[in-house]
Design brief:
By secondary structure, the protein is mainly beta. It has one helix and 35 strands. It has three domains: 123 residues, Jelly Rolls (Sandwich), CATH 2.60.120.380; 98 residues, Immunoglobulin-like, CATH 2.60.40.10; 218 residues, Sandwich (Jelly Rolls).
Length: 496
């Protein structure tokens, strides 16, 4: 029995000791509100071990209270700022906990955990302010009252739902006014990649900032960015703009949309391109993901081979050829789809076209993801001419070899002309990228994104860049005097 009494005594002693350390704040209860006077006025409190009284009209837990009597009538801004939890701020009139009338309430946001209420106060009237927290968090609180109204700020640009490219200089601009003072600065913030980021400050009208959302988030799609601005006026009062949601994305290819098709022409050439981060428009007839588009003017009537090859097996391509000048009016002329079992990662379609007509060509990814590609347009069985006795072209061998996409070009020239391979970015200015070759040649060549050289005995390779176009051009025998600048060194004459 004596042992039991001793244990009770120890527990009682421990409870008294803990009570002295963990005592509730002085303004824990409504009846113990701390009185504030004047304006501006600021007070510091702490809600550690605070409680919530029965019948208390506030939301949340751990409330602490202040009271304040307005020195003059007018507009006042009440602000509660904390650092380690999200505050709830409530402003009431009334002298008893059971008869309080709510004038306004606010919950802190993501920028700096500040809650703010604007009241139209009457001189001599007493007001009660309570600060609570949501999930029992504890910490210090700063309560301020200023005889002024906060600024009014909204984001003008970008607009809600806008797409922002990682390479763009994005203009952040606000529309801001302040009824009773001057705005001194506007801070811009963005919450994305899971964290709130400070973007910068504008200190002069029109309060705008240029910012580049350069960020590497891999091959994923657009990332959500929540953008917000905070304006501060000459009295130190701040106001936050409504949050807008934008989408940050890598820029798509220039020919991502049907209306932005790249114009191409000619009877034999290769286009180096990329469908990485390409999108799909409403009404796009292609299957899979991410289409890119060209507008090809057929030089002559006949059957042409249109081939799409994905470099490095980055995706399984679909290629489609269409007539029609609008997306809604497209009529398929021919389509082809590669398969995962075909290690060439290519799709090839033969189409019968009319010379002078414009055809839309699209390439999309039906499997895997996206990457570099080559679009090849060749006349499979072109008739003999004065310049070329015979010409055929086809992907060979299937797929790619050592990073190169091979085109096997069999031809035999006639009429005494020389020829060379040329490249252009606009179909107006062409530059020779090979040495000139003599008449009566017969060889193969390949396109490569690595080098310019001969490969014995029949292959010719050149360096290719995205969105360059290539052609085989013939010249009178006296038009060229020697190799062009940067031409490769001939290693073999076999086949000549």
């Amino acid at each position: 029995m004596d042992g039991w009494k001793a244990a009770v005594a120890v527990c009682a002693s421990l409870m008294v000791t803990l009570g002295s350390v963990t005592g509730a704040p002085a303004n824990d209860n409504f009846t113990n509100r701390i009185d504030l006077t004047g304006s501006p006025v600021s007070a510091t409190g702490d809600n550690t071990y605070a409680t919530r009284e029965p019948g208390e009209p506030t939301q949340g837990v751990r409330s602490i209270w202040w009271s304040w009597t307005a020195p003059t009538s007018g507009t006042y801004t009440v602000t509660a700022t904390v650092h380690n939890f999200t505050p709830y701020l409530f402003v009431y009139t009334g002298s008893q906990l059971t008869n309080l009338t709510l004038l306004g309430s606010d919950i802190g946001g993501d920028l700096d955990r500040t809650a703010q209420v604007v009241v139209q106060a009457a001189e001599g009237t007493s007001y009660s302010m309570a600060v609570t927290t949501y999930a029992g968090a504890e910490g210090s609180v700063v309560l301020s009252i200023v005889h002024a109204s906060p600024p009014n700020v909204v984001l003008a640009t970008p607009t809600n739902g806008a797409t922002i490219y990682t390479t763009d200089n994005t203009l952040l601009r606000v529309d801001v006014t302040d009824a009773d003072g001057d705005v001194t600065k506007v801070d811009f913030f963005a919450k994305w990649q899971g964290a709130m980021q400070f973007l910068g400050t504008a200190t002069n009208f029109p309060f705008e900032l240029s910012y580049t959302f350069g960020y590497n988030f891999g091959d994923g799609g657009p990332q959500s960015a929540l953008i917000q601005a905070r304006a501060t006026d000459a009295t130190g009062i701040t106001a936050d703009s409504p949050v807008i949601q934008c989408w940050v994305s890598y820029p798509p290819p220039p020919n991502d949309d049907f209306t932005n098709r790249l114009g191409i022409m000619g009877s034999f050439f290769t286009v180096a391109a990329n469908n990485l981060y390409a999108t799909k428009e409403l009404g796009d007839p292609t299957p899979g993901r991410g289409s890119v588009w060209w507008a090809w003017t057929a030089p002559t009537s006949g059957v042409y081979a249109i081939t799409a090859v994905a470099l490095g097996g980055s995706f399984v391509p679909f290629v489609g050829v269409y007539s029609g000048s609008t997306m809604a009016g497209l009529v398929p002329v021919g389509t082809a789809t590669g398969t995962l079992s075909d290690t060439s990662y290519s799709a090839r379609v033969a189409v019968d076209v009319q010379g002078g007509n414009v055809y839309s060509i699209a390439v999309s990814a039906v499997a895997l993801y996206a990457g570099e590609l080559r679009l090849c347009i060749t006349p499979p069985n072109a008739p003999a001419t004065a310049e070329f006795e015979a010409i055929t072209a086809e992907p060979w061998p299937p797929g790619f070899v050592d990073g190169a996409v091979n085109l096997r070009l069999w031809f035999r020239t006639g009429g005494g002309s020389r020829w060379r391979i040329e490249a252009s970015s606009n179909f107006v200015t062409w530059e020779g990228i090979s040495q000139e070759f003599q008449p009566n040649c017969r060889l193969d060549f390949t396109t490569s994104n690595a080098r310019t050289r001969w490969v014995a005995p029949y292959y010719y390779e050149w360096y290719s860049l995205p969105h360059l176009f290539y052609r085989l051009a013939s010249f009178p025998s006296n038009a060229l005097s020697g190799p062009t600048k940067g031409s490769p060194t001939k290693r073999s004459t076999e086949g000549r």
